[in-house]
Amino acid sequence: HESKLTVEVFGKPVTLSDVKETFPVGKQVTGIARPEMIQVRQDGQFSGVVRRASFLGNIVDYDVEVNGQLITAVENDPRRMTAIYPEGSTVSLDLLADCIHILPGK
Fold first, then answer.
1. Hey, which bits of the chain come out as E strands?
2. What is the DSSP letter of 86?
3. Entry pTM
4. What does the pLDDT look like over 35-86, one tens digit per residue?
5. Alpha-carbon distance 36 to 49, whole Å?
6. For residues 18, 19, 21 and 23, what is the CA-based torsion angle, rounded to 10 degrees?
């Protein structure tokens, strides 16, 4: 049975599917996402500024500042690596919601 959980990330709701645990409404949780599960785009869920961009051959490694937090994203899909966003660029991040793991918060 598939369970869904809606969490607030940077002030926006994100609905996650196939969550193994249940949490009371209003309970603080911690979400964990691997950097390659965060996509750097022009249009996406969360707006941010590129603070570091490193082309490493088959991947581009980014640090993007969103709401004062530094988020590491790794672009490894050659279909989306047509351009490297330079430092200072305004970009958006998309989370692959089915790849986020939820842990109990504080």
1. 5-9, 12-16, 29-32, 38-41, 46-55, 60-66, 69-75, 90-95, 101-104
2. P
3. 0.83
4. 999 999 888 889 999 999 999 888 999 999 999 999 999 998 878 777 789 9
5. 18
6. -130
